[in-house]
Amino acid sequence: MVRTPREVGGFIALPLRLTKTDAFPHETTHYLYLKPHDPKIPEEAAPRSLFLVNIPISTTAQSLKDLFTSKLEGGRIERVHFSDTTPHKSQEPGTKSRKRKRKTVEELEAGLDTYSLPKVFDTEIHGSGASAVVVFVDRPSMELSLKAARRAAKHGTPISWDAGPDVTSLGLARYERHRQLQFPSRKDLLRSVNAYMTAYSALEESRSRENARRRAEPDEDGFLTVTRGSRGSVRMDEAKEVAERQKEKSKGLEDFYRFQTRERRKLVQEDMIKRFDEDKRKVEEMRKRRRSVGES
């Protein structure tokens, strides 16, 4: 009989017993590999996290909480991150969210990715060999769970894996359900499209404000570039706000423009006086010539 190693490459080999289902009518043993999380880029929550590899395809955050908290009698879990799903930004406990009055164009563009059409699958299935990071409430909880997993691997008895109610919708049943969901109701489809278009309108409005602000800013020489505006009109209060900012910025240029005007007028005046003196000199010379001709 081949003996399964307790550790593989620094990972603890934790045996799990997967119950039979309609998709796979045989009970089998599945090995979950785990170790303390040690990412290449340091993270604040890494010292209290475990890195899991080869998770079952139907794994959920609730099933991992049931494994570590109930089955292994380990510490409490704060959150779970799966490698093949987009992580959501979570708020650290004890911090208050600060609402910003206005989002930037980059933030609105990134927010468009959060809107999508209704899903055609109502269950998430992980790929073979997928990984996850389990973050515990503190480091003692992580160490307690790690010790419990090491004892279970040493004992060698598979732990019963509870995949939750979604395990019944695997195999052919999942695709039969998919056929029903691939044509969403008109109400759900309209709600998704309206949410996306609302976010897109906010993005266009933010772009219009940004373009108006750039058009209102003078260049290095103090001149404004006159361009044709976009279709979306800027609100009156925003236009007034831009005008006020422009007025404050142009205060320092007023004296410079006055100096230029005075210098230009002074040059014009000096040129007129010079030409007047030349004309006066020419008239005097003409009078002298006439007098000399009359005397001769």
TrEMBL record:
- One cellular component (GO) term of this entry: UTP-C complex
Task: Give the Pfam families listed for this entry.
Answer: RRM_Rrp7, RRP7
Domain (Rrp7 RRM-like N-terminal): give its ranges. 7-178
Region (Disordered): which ranges? 79-103, 205-254
Could you tell me the superkingdom of the organism this chain comes from? Answer: Eukaryota
Where is composition skewed (Basic and acidic residues) in this entry? 79-91, 205-217, 234-254
Cross-referenced InterPro entries: RRM_Rrp7, RRP7, RRP7_C
Q: Where is the Ribosomal RNA-processing protein 7 C-terminal domain?
A: 181-291
Q: Name one GO biological process term.
A: ribosomal small subunit assembly
UniProt xrefs under PANTHER family = RIBOSOMAL RNA PROCESSING PROTEIN 7-RELATED, RIBOSOMAL RNA-PROCESSING PROTEIN 7 HOMOLOG A-RELATED
Family assignment?
Answer: Belongs to the RRP7 family.
Report what the protein is called: Meiotic recombination protein DMC1
